[in-house]
Specification:
It is built from three helices and seven strands. By secondary structure, it is α+β, with helices and mostly antiparallel strands. The chain has one domain. The protein has a four-stranded mixed β-sheet, with helices on one face. A three-stranded antiparallel β-sheet has the order 5-6-7. The longest helix is centred in the middle third of the chain and has 19 residues. The chain is globular.
């Protein structure tokens, strides 16, 4: 599942956080990703983050929080995927016909809706 940057950030650089602790506890791999893709959650629990994104920036942390929601969805059994399909709560979605990362996809809608809360829980010491 991938995260594409859309819209303004809902956080600012003045918030206290524990970024280094969180990032060191996750299996994050920075690498080249498809154009426009900032991060991807993988079935093995790893998260790919684009080389073009600073993982310590607000946008980087938002992408990591978004992908963590997908990891939660996969761990709970709500979502899975393979090369051809995404499986969401008993429904099969063919990948060749979808716009991956679209906010209209039900698992992405949930991730975007929960992203700000996940960000706060992951990165803000006071949350």
């Amino acid at each position: 599942m991938n995260f594409k940057m859309k819209g303004a950030s809902f956080h600012n650089d003045d918030q206290q956080d524990n970024t280094n602790e969180v990032i060191s506890s996750l299996n994050i791999v920075q690498k080249d990703l498809e154009e426009g893709v900032m991060a991807e959650a993988n079935l093995d629990g790893s998260t790919y983050v684009s080389n073009e994104l600073d993982i310590n920036s607000i946008e980087g942390k938002e992408a990591i929080a978004h992908e963590q929601i997908h990891h939660d969805q996969m761990q709970s059994g709500e979502m899975s995927y393979d090369d051809d399909f995404v499986y969401w709560k008993g429904t099969i979605y063919p990948r060749k016909t979808m716009n991956e990362g679209s906010k209209e996809l039900p698992w992405e809608k949930e991730a975007y809706d929960r992203e700000e809360d996940m960000f706060d829980r992951m990165f803000n010491k006071n949350a």
